[in-house]
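P.,

For your records, the input lines for the assembly:
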Amino acid sequence: MSPTEFPAASPAAGPTPALLTVRGLRKSFGANQVLKSVDLTVARGEVLALIGPSGSGKTTVLRCLNGLEIADGGTIEIVGAQDASHAPVVIDFARAHGSRAGVPKKALGTLRDRSAMVFQHYNLFPHKTVLENVMEGPLVVQRRPRAEVEAEALALLERVGLAEKRDSYPFELSGGQQQRVGIVRALALRPTLLLFDEPTSALDPELVGDVLRLIKELAGEGWTMVIVTHELEFAREVATEVAFVDGGTIVEHGDPREMLRNPQHERTRQFLHRLLFPF
Amino acid sequence: MTDSTWQLLLDSLWPMIQGAITGTIPLALASFAIGLVLALAVALMRLSRRSWLSSIARVYISLVRGTPLLVQLFVIFYGLPSIGVVIDPWPSAIIAFSINVGGYAAEVIRAAILSVPKGQWEAAYMIGMSHRRALTRIILPQAARVSVPPLSNTFISLVKDTSLASLILVTELFREAQQVAAFSGQFMALYLEAALLYWVICLVLSSGQGVLEKRLDRYVAH
Ligand SMILES: Nc1ncnc2c1ncn2[C@@H]1O[C@H](COP(=O)(O)OP(=O)(O)OP(=O)(O)O)[C@@H](O)[C@H]1O
Ligand SMILES: [Mg+2]
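Structure tokens returned:
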């Protein structure tokens, strides 16, 4: 599963253009305006870490990027792999009003195809085996040939050390193993963009390391990712950019080492302080 | 009890078993199968965002659950002919029981669908599934597991309720008992025998339910 096997993840030749561009993204739930105006760009091969207090809208941003939530306004542009059939798509939510009906179906489908999400609580399909979980999307939705899908799924499971669990059901796995299957399920979709929503926050502390290590490896292989995380050390090490979300906007963003050491905004400073000194 | 009573019980056993095999059991199976399809449709209507669909389903469920099964049966068999719709006993019974199962099982299925965590829908959408595919491949299989115990109860009730079909002249277990009883005057003995047969059928069904649950349990932690 080197990035060269997946054209989607191979690094761009020359200057890295933005793979994902989000402008003025807005989203309300009833009277609660959760995203006020979110702007982000992620270049190919970059890892963006989203940090911020609970309820600030981090999960909502990711869900909009995966089409699980329809924004009320703003645009999302996502580039595909580098051949011509994967031209960039731009989705304009100006007329969406938060409803699927207001968004071109094809563009939304492309957004969903190009991004894949790893959930906080894994959300594996409990009635399917590990291998079936991984193969479901490529086989049933993408209709790729079974032999190819199975070989790729097994290679991916092999790589995360779970090949011998192929016929187990999710309940037979530890949380860390389930989350690694969750990651493999996302990779098997051959996305251009990987989204992680606090991938380790539901795990017992001793299981966190394996999952973070895997994500770090993926970053090293050139995958483009957006990761919501509370693991500052991990963000510092793996992210190429960190963005602090508060009150539905990105308050500041920048180089992780720089920003985590020397935040410019008072709110960022307070948040980091609380995270580092919870007592 | 006298020897002749025993003899009568023995002689009537085979007709009653035949009544079960050719009446009670096929009646219950056919009505349950049709009723389940109906129930799934009603449950999905009930869950629909379109309020008129959901209202229709709600009224249907309320009507079925708020009126006696015997009355439903009589309306179809004895009532409809007066507006020119004459239906034979068997189809009348199947229609009435299917409609009844449709109402009760719809609520079971609806609750089962709602019991599947929202994250399952999201994971299904995440891998690119449409609503329909998410429902059929991800949600319903999990809902099915949850609904086996309550639907088994619905089925067992239905098996017993089919005895009402004797009142619209369907030949099934209880009607066989009634006929022998009326002919011989041995009401107590024959009705107890009928009760015993229903009980045996229900015991068999309960153990079948256990087997089914175990099969479906293979992916659930114990
Ligand atoms: N489906 C929904 N309906 C109504 N309100 C919602 C919905 N989803 C999120 N919200 C609200 O939006 C706000 C932001 O939620 P979100 O989950 O994006 O925050 P978060 O930054 O991910 O927080 P956390 O760190 O706790 O996960 C919260 O106030 C939440 O209650
Ligand atoms: Mg969140």
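Two observations worth noting. Residues 1-13 of chain A have pLDDT under 50 and may be disordered. The longest strand of chain A covers residues 18-29.

Regards
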